[in-house]
Amino acid sequence: MPEYAVLFRSFLFLPSILSFFAS
């Protein structure tokens, strides 16, 4: 299912976005 891939991808991108805003 594509929605699982989108959810998994956003879950992987979350730490990167958080660290980007934190720095």
From TrEMBL:
Transmembrane segments: 6-22
Keyword terms, alphabetized: Membrane, Transmembrane, Transmembrane helix
The name this protein goes by in its record: Uncharacterized protein
